[in-house]
Amino acid sequence: MLLLGAHLSIAGGVSQAFARAAELGCTAMQIFTKNASQWRSKPLPATEIEAFAAAWQKSQVASVTAHDSYLINLATPEGDKRSRSLAAFVDEMERCAALGIPGLVMHPGAHLGAGEEIGLQRIAEALRSIFAAAPTQVTVLLENTAGQGSYLGHRFEHLAEIMERVPEGRFGVCFDTCHALAADYDLTSADGYWTTITEFDRLIGTEHIAAFHLNDSLKERGSRVDRHAQIGQGAVALEAFAALMGDERFAAVPKLLETAPGEGNCHHLASLALLRQMAEEQA
Fold it and tell me: Which parts of 211-265 fold into alpha helices (H)?
């Protein structure tokens, strides 16, 4: 099965995302498990956990991934923000475990001027603490970033180093195409895709990729600016998307849009149709 879908709204409750997935014909989806702009959220009611399980059972969605709150920064120094970040991330993992969601996507963090080495050290220390406290059935999916501001994760080496520094961690990687291009990896052609994914394989291993964010990039290669665009309307080549869709190593890896759905889901419907066509042509 082609696992293809989008990040979907949980308005009205997490279980409502499955109805939105059905409207798009999604076989995979990504959600927030809480309001992503707030530190605290009420615990998931047992009725909503049951409704989520029941809706998933009836759905054609085979893969659900969660994304953590953008407020969380594991590279921040000691203080209130760091304490809040660690507690919030453990809570996110607990919510995933309650819902049966196996993977939680996260941006590694921003060092805020302290430098890459100190930032990576803080992230590793935070994750060691988190893994000691969090449910064991949830995998943390490190997402490559665009490198905007002081964000770490824009080099594959950063992700590899975090994984190496936390050997007890349960890690995968979420590969974002927009972020990769903005971070100066070549996705401007099919050849560029193969070069980029070969470099990823050398440094981390493609077997660690557990999800893709299929986003085009409004800004050019190497811009270090995180601005998503609809598929085919940015600087990522359609040939690069087609090469990814045809890469047999990732046939069973969920591929997810994170762009605006558009009126009546027009953008999502068009992008998903294009990606399905690419997959069929590459088969």
Answer: 238-246
Instruction: Tally Cβ neighbours within 10 Å of residue 35.
Output: 12
Q: Which helix (H) or strand (E) holds 210?
A: strand 209-213
148-152 long-range CB contacts below 8 Å, 24 or more apart? 148/182, 148/224, 148/225, 148/226, 149/110, 150/110, 150/111, 150/112, 150/113, 150/119, 151/107, 151/108, 151/109, 151/110, 152/75, 152/108, 152/109, 152/110, 152/111, 152/116, 152/119, 152/120, 152/123
Indicate the helix (H) or strand (E) that contains 171. strand 171-176
What is the C-alpha to C-alpha distance for residues 176 and 82, in angstroms, rounded to an integer?
A: 25
Is-contact 257 201, C-beta < 8 A?
A: no
Give the residue ranges of the chain where pLDDT is below 70.
none
Which residues span the domain enclosing 35?
Answer: 4-282
How confident is the model at residue 166, as a pLDDT?
98
Question: Tell me, what CATH number does 88's domain have?
Answer: 3.20.20.150
For the chain, what is the domain count? 1
Both structure tokens of 207: 């077997």
What are the tokens at 230? Answer: 């609809």
